[in-house]
Amino acid sequence: MNKDQTQSKLRQTLLVKLLPDPMQDRFIEILLSVSEQRQAETGATLFKLGDTNADQGCLLLEGMLKVTRGDGEVRYIEAPDIVGEVQLFKPQAERTATVDVVIGGSMLTFAWKAMAAAAKDVFSEDEMAALRDNIMHIASSRERDILQRKQDEPGAASS
User: Fold this and answer.
1) For 80-135, how does the pLDDT look when each residue is reduced to its tens digit (9 = 90+)?
2) Which run of H or E residues covers position 126?
3) Which domain holds residue 48?
4) Tens digits of per-residue pLDDT, 96-107?
5) DSSP 156
6) Which residues face 106 on adjacent strands?
7) Beta strands in 6-141, from DSSP E residues, in sequence order
8) CA distances (Å), 126 to each of 11, 26, 131, in order?
9) CATH code of the domain covering residue 114
10) What domain count does the chain have?
11) Which of 64, 80, 84, 126 could form an SS bridge with 103, CB 3.0 to 4.6 Å?
């Protein structure tokens, strides 16, 4: 995948789309500067539940991932999307799910700390707050979706 194709895929992610327009291109450049493009091989495991490698994030550009939480909840994530953000907001800084590659494709891997350091060099304090809020929104939305699905399951206690 060439740089133009990678940038196009990144523009489609919520991580970028939810940022204010003036930040989007600069954030894409930050991501490209701190990331390594890799091939996600079908059947590979990116993260394991409980692992403490909480500094690594992954932007799936092509393919599909299966996310299995400790309680057995399974969800599928299609590209383009980000994974590895939820544990940033967990006090124990452990992986909250096992993430397996179902359909291989291109991805960017990066260290959250490197991304944050590069962003601090480019963004104002207000822009950094917008970026943090965006990441927190994505993580909390995923958690809310899981809770909602559990409540909607047959046999779940009704209010």
Assistant:
1) 998 887 656 655 677 888 999 999 999 999 988 899 899 999 999 999 999 999 98
2) helix 125-152
3) 3-142
4) 889 999 999 999
5) P
6) 39
7) 35-40, 45-47, 56-60, 64-69, 74-78, 81-83, 97-103, 105-111
8) 21, 15, 9
9) 2.60.120.10
10) 1
11) 64
